[in-house]
From TrEMBL:
GO terms for molecular function: methyltransferase activity. Keywords: Methyltransferase, Transferase. InterPro entries: Ppm1/Ppm2/Tcmp, SAM-dependent_MTases_sf, TcmP-like. Its EC number is 2.1.1.-. This is Tetracenomycin polyketide synthesis O-methyltransferase TcmP. It comes from the Archaea. It comes from Methanobacterium congolense. GO terms for biological process: methylation. It is an enzyme of class 2 (transferase). Pfam families: LCM.
Length: 270
């Protein structure tokens, strides 16, 4: 039976659509078969997204970057604890599970309610229906081993003060943990606030609020116990798929102004 998700924020459905569409390419960047299965069960006019190719490539590039970095972490720590903040309809656990990790998908009650139509909890896979800023969720996670925290498409919608407070709580609750997070640029934040880009493009009542020019400076300034490890810029990956943007991305000011990154950090264990 098809699920009617009318009225559900498109921030939940757009990444799912992007990954499902990618599976149809002859040489896909990622092959998310679970996303393709889920999209067949949802009543929604996905055709209206067909022209949103920059969003589609952005999602699959960030998915590949996060998948690869998570695989590296799991290889080093096969019994790891993974916490996915703002999971939406993400399918990463089903793709990367090694049979030993413990995975927590965290999101607001409505997205988690929707997830339960497509995913079942197990002794190693749990869903937590709470805001990331309701810090009581941390009590539901047992950090019995190495911890990796993932956050994509989430933190840029909150203020710097809110992000700072969350990072302070994470550093304290999970000392020694590593984190992979998506960041955007301050220029895109300003443009979003000025032109209401997200609402005009997707009819989503959301505005970018937080961005960083560089991953190292931006993250280490939030908390002295944060150590920058690495960052990956989307425009540096699969350049042939960015069409005309790939040439503009060769210009550093354009690349830094309009591109998103995945930033890898670690929390001091002191």
């Amino acid at each position: 039976m098809k699920q009617n998700l009318k009225g559900v924020s498109e921030t939940l459905l757009i990444p799912l659509w992007a990954r499902a569409v990618e599976a149809e390419y002859p040489d896909p960047i990622i092959k998310d078969e679970k996303a393709a299965e889920i999209i067949e069960e949802i009543e929604y006019d996905f055709a209206k997204l067909d022209e949103e190719w920059p969003t589609q490539i952005s999602v699959v590039v960030r998915t590949e970057i996060l998948d690869n970095a998570t695989k590296v972490f799991i290889k080093k720590h096969p019994d790891a604890i993974i916490i996915n903040i703002g999971c939406g309809l993400d399918t990463r656990f089903s793709r990367l599970d090694n049979g030993r990790i413990h995975w927590y998908d965290l999101d607001l009650p409505e997205p988690i309610r929707i997830r339960r139509n497509f995913f079942d909890e197990t002794d190693r896979y749990k869903m937590i229906a709470r805001s990331a800023f309701d810090y009581s969720w941390m009590e539901d996670v047992t950090p019995s081993g190495s911890v990796l925290i993932i956050s994509e498409g989430v933190l840029m919608y909150f203020t710097e003060a809110e992000v700072k407070d969350l990072m302070n709580k994470l550093v304290t609750a999970f000392p020694g943990a590593e984190m992979l997070l998506e960041t955007t640029s301050p220029a895109l934040v300003k443009q979003s606030q000025k032109q209401d880009l997200i609402k005009n493009q997707y009819s989503i009542d959301a505005t970018l609020q937080w961005g960083v020019k560089r991953g190292r400076k931006g993250m280490e300034e939030l908390n002295s116990r944060i150590e920058f490890i690495k960052e990956w810029h989307y425009f540096d990956h699969h350049r042939e798929r960015w069409k005309s943007i790939r040439w503009l991305a060769l210009i550093p000011p354009f690349k830094n102004r309009f591109g998103n990154r995945i930033v890898h950090i670690k929390f001091d264990s002191i």
